[in-house]
Every structure is written in C-alpha cells, then in structure tokens.
C-alpha cells in the first residue's frame, strides 16, 4: 500500500465516485469526483495530505454550491421551443369567414382552421387579423 503514490489513490477515489454517478444519475457524485481529481493534481505536485484533503473539500463544496443551483434552475425551466398546438398560441391569423362565438374560419400558419371568438358577443369580419389565444381540439380560440 505504501508503494502507491497518494495521487493514484485520489484517482481511484474519483473513479469510484464515478460509478454511483452513472448508476444513480446524481450529479453530486460527479462534483465529488472532480474534487478528487483536483486533490490528485495537488498530490502529484508534492503537497502534503492536509492540503490534498482541503483541496478535495473546497473544490467539491464549491462545485456543489455553485453548479447545483444553476442545474436545478435549468431543470425547472420549460423548453423554449414550442411545438404542435402550443406553437400556434399567440400567433396572428386572418379571418376567412366571419368568426363569432359560434364559429367561423381563419387562416393560421398557412392552414385553414375552424375558429370561434373568445368573447361570445364579439364578431370578426373577413380580412381582419386576430390573435390565437388557445386551441381546443381543432378549433382556434381568437381575440
């Protein structure tokens, strides 16, 4: 055991921390593994065990304190690229047949859609531009 340099043990520890990272998909293990690699580098430079352990702790804690909140924030964000009917919400359309609370037709994204007014007392005439606020089935709800 004494024949193996400390930096090798740090690399073995980093590899050992990589196993639960892959198995559990917990990024904290990866951050600890990076701390172990940093400690291996410090050991290879000839620093003593106290400096090696401090390097491991400081690098690991810094990564967990900085990277983890950023990753959590990105994980909570919804995708920026809307697809399907979600991509049609908020777009403008042109009225092809009078649209009121009971129905009508619009041209939306190059296609003809059935539509109805959000405000049932309001009507939109042919050629008018309307905004799509929702899609219910195959009917666009417009204002």
Structure description:
The protein is of the alpha+beta class. The chain has a five-stranded mixed barrel. The chain has two domains: 6-76, no CATH class; 85-142, Nucleic acid-binding proteins (OB fold (Dihydrolipoamide Acetyltransferase, E2P), Beta Barrel). It has helices spanning 6-24, 27-44, 49-76, 85-88; strands spanning 92-100, 103-108, 111-117, 129-136, 139-142. It is rod-shaped and about 85 Å long.
What are its keywords?
alpha+beta, OB fold (Dihydrolipoamide Acetyltransferase, E2P), Membrane_assoc_protease, 2 domains, 4 helices, 143 residues
H/E topology pattern: HHHHEEEEE
Poorly predicted residue ranges: none
Distance between the termini: 76 Å
Beta-strand residue percentage: 15-25%
Q: Which oligomeric state applies? A: single chain
Q: Work out the helicity level.
A: 40-55%
Pfam families: NfeD
Organism: Streptomyces corchorusii
Keywords: Membrane, Transmembrane, Transmembrane helix
Transmembrane segments: 6-23, 53-71
Write the layout of secondary structure elements.
Blueprint: H1 6-24, H2 27-44, H3 49-76, H4 85-88, E1 92-100, E2 103-108, E3 111-117, E4 129-136, E5 139-142
Parallel strand pairs: 3-5
Antiparallel strand pairs: 1-2, 1-4, 2-3, 4-5
Helix pairs in contact: 1-2, 2-3
In short:
The chain has 2 domains: 6-76, no CATH class; 85-142, OB fold (Dihydrolipoamide Acetyltransferase, E2P), CATH 2.40.50.140. It has helices at 6-24, 27-44, 49-76, 85-88, and strands at 92-100, 103-108, 111-117, 129-136, 139-142.
